[in-house]
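ok, trying the design again with the full structure, not the truncated one.
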């Protein structure tokens, strides 16, 4: 489950692997849940505990590491660094080149910070890097 410590010949040109994984010794997972029927405030309390207590403690323990994207805290405050590290800007260039109309989107994915979800789950242009205001995404 750990990336090889030997840097491959193609690295980093063709890999999006978080550079910290090349130095990792342990893959540590912290999980938390709630029973069916838990009210929204209870769910938010569990999420806050995970983000601001449990994973914050891991960040403090070793700030130069990160998280595997598929097993991460979806509310990670420093997600660009935690999930992509030094690869983020290169990956953003690839995203802009291959998806110039920004059709592909997911939470905490490269380039997603130019869009926001409204309360109904619709995507709106956030204005970060796009020139301002919220703009409903109707083109997809």
């Amino acid at each position: 489950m750990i990336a090889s410590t030997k840097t491959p010949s193609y690295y980093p040109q063709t890999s999006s692997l978080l550079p910290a994984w090349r130095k990792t010794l342990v893959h540590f997972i912290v999980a938390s849940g709630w029973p069916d029927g838990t009210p929204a405030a209870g769910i938010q309390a569990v999420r806050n505990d995970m983000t601001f207590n449990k994973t914050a403690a891991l960040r403090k323990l070793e700030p130069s590491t990160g998280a595997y994207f598929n097993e991460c805290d979806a509310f990670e405050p420093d997600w660009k660094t935690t999930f992509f590290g030094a690869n983020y800007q290169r990956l953003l260039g690839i995203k802009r080149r291959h998806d110039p109309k920004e059709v592909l989107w997911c939470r905490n994915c490269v380039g997603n910070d130019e869009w926001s979800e409204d309360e109904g789950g619709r995507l709106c242009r956030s204005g970060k890097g796009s020139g301002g205001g919220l703009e409903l995404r109707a083109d997809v």
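Keeping the full-length input from now on. The mean pLDDT is 80.
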